[in-house]
């Protein structure tokens, strides 16, 4: 139980960091980017403008980061199928492995966060998308990939016992996360602070999943 308590404390700290960072994004150095006077205001405008101007935009990295997003669909589909198979065989939803049930709950929470930040707009993208200023914070692509791939690592460790398979998967998932984060930044469709916000929120969500798994394991022995 001590391990579970420590995990939940870390989770709370990560959520607090995300909240504080979000408030700072809305209040610190808010202004119009130097490279586009028609752009909506953004927090940390000097930092964000400097990073955006230094890196520019890249259609290649936009495409690469989009491709990385395909992997999260496969992962979600895999765990959904595994859960449905267990449910059918065991004739009871609550007899499905807690690893998968908690993962389903995490996906629901992730979807809620996605919709929330589409409605509650913190700031807009640095560039127009099909002539429209779209919500940009936190980077939804970063958040989705980091959360799904990040949570799949402990889930795979619980389900598959062969160490070799786990190592290969961990390396692949970590690589997908890294390429997505870097690719989304280099693509130029998000502010630097959007990427940081996406990473912080996904880290908090993944840690919440790990904490719940640890608590269930402690209670069931």
Structure description:
- With 221 residues, the protein is mainly α.
- It has one domain.
- Helices cover 75% and strands 0% of the residues.
- The chain is built from 7 helices and no strands.
- 37% of the residues are buried.
- The mean pLDDT is 90.
The total strand number stands at 0
Radius of gyration: 19 Å
Unreliable segments of 5+ consecutive residues: none
Domains counted in the coordinates: how many?
1
Distance between the termini: 10 Å
Largest sheet report = none
Proportion of residues in helical segments: over 70%
Number of helices: 7
Dominant shape: elongated
- The computed structural class is mainly alpha
Average pLDDT confidence is 90
Q: What fraction of residues sit in β-strands?
A: under 5%
Please write the string of helix (H) and strand (E) elements: HHHHHHH
Structure at a glance:
The protein is 75% helix and 0% strand. By secondary structure, the chain is mostly helical.
Strand and helix layout:
Elements lengths: L1 H26 L17 H11 L3 H32 L7 H22 L20 H20 L3 H25 L4 H29 L1
Looking at this protein, list some descriptive labels:
single chain, mainly alpha, 7 helices, 221 residues
């Amino acid at each position: 139980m001590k391990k579970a308590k420590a995990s939940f404390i870390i989770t709370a700290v990560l959520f607090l960091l995300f909240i504080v960072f979000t408030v700072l994004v809305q209040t610190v150095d808010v202004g119009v980017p130097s490279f586009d006077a028609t752009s909506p205001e953004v927090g940390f405008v000097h930092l964000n403008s400097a990073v955006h101007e230094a890196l520019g935009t890249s259609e290649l990295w936009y495409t690469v980061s989009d491709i990385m997003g395909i992997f999260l669909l496969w992962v979600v589909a895999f765990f959904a199928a595994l859960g449905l198979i267990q449910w059918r065989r065991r004739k009871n939803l609550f007899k499905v492995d807690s690893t998968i049930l908690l993962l389903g709950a995490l996906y629901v929470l992730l979807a809620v966060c996605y919709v929330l930040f589409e409605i509650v707009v913190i700031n807009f993208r640095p560039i127009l998308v099909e002539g429209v200023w779209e919500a940009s914070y936190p980077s939804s692509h970063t958040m989705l990939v980091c959360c799904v791939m990040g949570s799949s690592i402990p889930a795979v460790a619980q389900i598959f016992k062969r160490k070799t398979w786990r190592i290969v998967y961990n390396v692949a998932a970590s690589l997908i996360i890294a390429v997505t984060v870097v690719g989304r930044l280099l693509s130029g469709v998000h502010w630097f602070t959007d990427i940081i916000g996406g990473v912080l929120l996904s880290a908090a969500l993944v840690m919440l999943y790990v904490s719940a798994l640890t608590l269930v394991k402690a209670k069931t022995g």
